[in-house]
What we know:
Residues 5-273 form the Sulfotransferase domain. By secondary structure, the protein is an alpha/beta fold. 46% of the residues lie in helices and 10% in strands. The chain has 13 helices and 7 strands.
Amino acid sequence: xxxxxxxxxxxxxxxxxxxxxxxxxxxxxxxxxxxxxxxxxxxxxxxxxxxxxxxxxxxxxxxxxxxxxxxxxxxxxxxxxxxxxxxxxxxxxxxxxxxxxxxxxxxxxxxxxxxxxxxxxxxxxxxxxxxxxxxxxxxxxxxxxxxxxxxxxxxxxxxxxxxxxxxxxxxxxxxxxxxxxxxxxxxxxxxxxxxxxxxxxxxxxxxxxxxxxxxxxxxxxxxxxxxxxxxxxxxxxxxxxxxxxxxxxxxxxxxxxxxxxxxxxxxxxxxxxxxxxx
Length: 278
């Protein structure tokens, strides 16, 4: 493997489920420990990783300096530690920077997971402890960032996420990338077929037996049960629900107020139509 293999998505779109599958698959379909084995697909924006490859502490930098440094650090990680990485970064050039946080020449290939933004809004609200209305507003905000370090030092450096529509198109329309787009809803509807496509794209064992074994080890019920027993360190400190809360599709029909569904359709409608979210 040469370069970064990215598992990219807007937050709360299925990234963790896909990482859990890969963590199991890379261990021959064995059960995983959420708090140990998910580190096999680390967050590219993790502060400890960024500090190590940049050779300095990002806590000493301004947000603009972090944005300017991140492309260089991504190239160092790609050269020194090529592997699978999670990212929620938008693939456009952040304000004040000269390149995207993860430049194309550092990337081997990208798996991009997209989910109906109406379900994303509900999941974001539970994860961050926001109101659903606040989630809808942030999803339309081109300045939306994660990883800011006030009032305490964040585990990750700052990531520019942008709006839901901009994030999606920044990856789907990126020129020159080896990219596999996956809809979360399709993963749920036909997991064996879709995860087989994933394994084939990543040059992993794509036999029916191997994929089925890894799917069983990373099923939502298995992950939710483990979180209930041992907790999950990636659960946000402000969350008002388990990380593995529902895991379905179409929950917005009963869980999203009509006026908020209409606002999302107004804000994100063009890209929703492109992805057949009606």
